[in-house]
Design goal:
Elements (H helix, E strand, L loop, with lengths): L1 E6 L2 E6 L6 H8 L18 E4 L2 E4 L12 E3 L13 H8 L9 H14 L5 H8 L10 H16 L36
Parallel strand pairs: 1-5
Antiparallel strand pairs: 1-2, 3-4, 3-5
């Protein structure tokens, strides 16, 4: 079955079996190997990608179900080839990674959080990454990395939303805090 997916801002086409997962399609057909197969049951978070900006498990979703959604993998976060985005850089600086297997999912989950909330509490951060299991770091440096990335994002003057606003800000009042968006779980994918 032919499927065309919008991945990291580009349309990509592959001929896949209807039962082939989004994770396998990303890795095998599009050679985007940053997302990893861990438990293959949606529990560990190693396969996390962003679907329409929200963390989702690529191992639980068929590639054909992803049609019409914007898919972002870890490879799609970098602002330019050879560069890191602010969250990736913060993970490196705080040693928020060790073996690196869970890191792409952690970074994508943190990125999604910071797109909606550039002043997260420690509780917000822990909740955002709670669907990602790390067996190496003990999570302390991961939380520090997200805090550092949030601090750096607050210090920039660049709006990150299409409407010109920053997270936690509406068009009418720069001090208004928007309520967090509900979790987006497209077609069987699980947070």
């Amino acid at each position: 079955m032919k499927v065309t997916l919008k991945v990291n801002g580009r349309l990509r086409t592959a001929d896949v079996e209807p039962r082939k997962t989004l994770l396998d399609t990303l890795r095998e057909d599009f050679l985007l190997t940053g997302s990893h197969a861990g438990c293959e049951h949606g529990v560990c978070g190693a396969c996390t990608v962003l679907i329409d900006g929200e963390p989702s498990r690529a191992c639980l979703m068929f590639a054909v179900q992803a049609d019409g959604y914007e898919i972002t993998t870890i490879e799609g976060l970098a602002p330019a080839p050879g560069e890191l985005n602010v969250v990736q850089d913060a993970f490196c600086e705080t040693h928020g990674l060790q073996c690196g297997y869970c890191t792409p999912g952690m970074i994508l989950s943190a990125h999604a959080l910071l797109e909606h909330n550039d002043a997260p509490t420690r509780k917000d951060i822990v909740e955002a990454i709670s669907g990602n299991i790390c067996r190496c770091t003990g999570y302390g440096q991961i939380v520090e990395a997200v805090e550092l990335a949030a601090e750096r994002l607050r210090q920039t003057n660049v709006p990150r939303h299409v409407d010109g606003t920053r997270p936690n800000e509406s068009l009418g009042d720069s001090t208004t805090t928007d309520a967090p968006k509900a979790a987006h779980t497209p077609h069987g994918a699980r947070r």
